[in-house]
């Protein structure tokens, strides 16, 4: 049985190579060659995919969730150099899916050749809100999806003092975007030109705009901020974490007063039938995007000895947000990758909505995040 599974796995990998090679040849004249090659490399660099393929299984669909959701827009695992170039994975475990009827929205679709085409996407609202401890570590309003091997004590982390002090006039916070071209659903007044799949280099409409709003919210509360507005995932996604880390290092060298580094992203969820999921919550009668804090332990091979120090700030922020704005926060996702969080003891990564959320929904959420984060940071002055 094991030999038959291995044989099926080898055949699957061979089929992927042959079909992709044929696709590259057919599409090279349309400008899609680079895109196809990049996606093939990403797939075959996915350790989970290869492992399951060799066992005759497939990792693409996770059956343990209430919805079978594909990761269609996670940043690629590198094939050279950067060992931590993976993006936080979309999770739907114990989600309340389909609270509202599906919508059908017609928007411009990205094509590698630059041709404008309309495409209708089915959009479904979902609120990811755990109802039991199964698959989670839980304390009060704090829920953690622990995908690491580390044990965590949420009660202790919540009560522990922050591991840094904000001294002088700052700057105290650095906002960066490892995947700055990530964008939201182009519609209405927020319609823009796609420069890649679900991405744009236009900083008025990509996740850098969300960083602008976070910067403004923090500064309004008296927190000194530097917002690094460079795009590090274009023209190549590969190596974006390395490029971002170089920028973080330069800022920390110039401004050792920086204690908090926030990497702002947006998530993406697409089901087998093409449905895109919009993660939503309601705050004061307004629909806003759900957010998720992604934290790391450094078990992927890159050292991160102070990972628990980072978690202290994240847990406090999660508790403050969840207490004041129920359902606005998805569970914290604790991952093995490092995500550059070794740079400071106050580092975090935040996913603001998904590619199916509107830019305005993301902005509404991150403004609230900035205000609550500022309140916590003031206690460290």
Tally of extended strands? 15
The structure class reads alpha/beta
What's the helix count?
8
Shape: globular
> Per DSSP, what share of the residues sits in E-state strands of 2 or more residues?
15-25%
Distance between the amino and carboxyl termini: 63 Å
Question: What would the average pLDDT be, to the nearest integer?
Answer: 81
Task: Please list the strands of the largest sheet in the order they lie side by side.
Answer: 5-6-14-13-15-9-7-8
The radius of gyration over CA amounts to: 21 Å
Helix content: 25-40%
Give helix and strand order, one letter per element, not per position. HHHEEEEEEHEHEHEEEEEHEEH
Could you describe the largest sheet, including whether it forms a barrel? 8 strands, mixed
Q: Would you identify the regions where 5 or more consecutive residues have pLDDT less than 50?
A: 1-6, 24-33, 46-86, 89-99
